[in-house]
Amino acid sequence: xxxxxxxxxxxxxxxxxxxxxxxxxxxxxxxxxxxxxxxxxxxxxxxxxxxxxxxxxxxxxxxxxxxxxxxxxxxxxxxxxxxxxxxxxxxxxxxxxxxxxxxxxxxxxxxxxxxxxxxxxxxxxxxxxxxxxxxxxxxxxxxxxxxxxxxxxxxxxxxxxxxxxxxxxxxxxxxxxxxxxxxxxxxxxxxxxxxxxxxxxxxxxxxxxxxxxxxxxxxxxxxxxxxxxxxxxxxxxxxxxxxxxxxxxxxxxxxxxxxxxxxxxxxxx
Length: 269
Hints:
Layout: H1 2-18, H2 28-108, H3 124-136, H4 140-153, H5 160-173, H6 177-190, H7 197-210, H8 214-227, H9 232-245
Helix pairs in contact: 1-2, 2-3, 3-4, 4-5, 5-6, 6-7, 7-8, 7-9, 8-9
């Protein structure tokens, strides 16, 4: 646009000069016309510039509005995911709690559906259930501490692998993913044939995903599908792998895409 205006200015000046025998400086009328043309050119350029700036400002405002809307939705999803994480963790902890009660009832000859009051305080079963109650109520640091105390007191317990697994879940619920990964790995190292092993390996992959260790997460989740085919852990691992393949982990995936904060079908005693 500026080039066209400049070209027009030169053309008009040449035509005008062609009909005059004097230079613009010597002809006040011609000089006035040229000054007027320069002034009009400047005004046109200012209008064009101001309109471009206005359009740009409007575009920026529109983008900022979209970002605010998206951020609000992300916050909503994160809150929903946290609530779902707590609900599922409570559900599986309660399931483990109930099955442990059944085991205690069977060992004593009492009915399988024994109540918490039927278990003597200060016993192995009561210590385990009290720790799970803390976890179920979202008291993650207290649950981790209680479960660690349980393992220190009853290192040979038949529930030791479960307790170690729930330590990992306690750290995971508290979003301490590094400690959660260590706890889940301990299940795999010390009890490789445990019923908790598929879920421990799955949740190890989840913690790696949360820590943005996407290559490690992909390898771990693939290991779940190969070592434990046909399990719910393998199915959830496959779902997470699809997300990774779709690019969820390429730029730093959100925590909400990691599945659940609870054992995916592994909350059985």
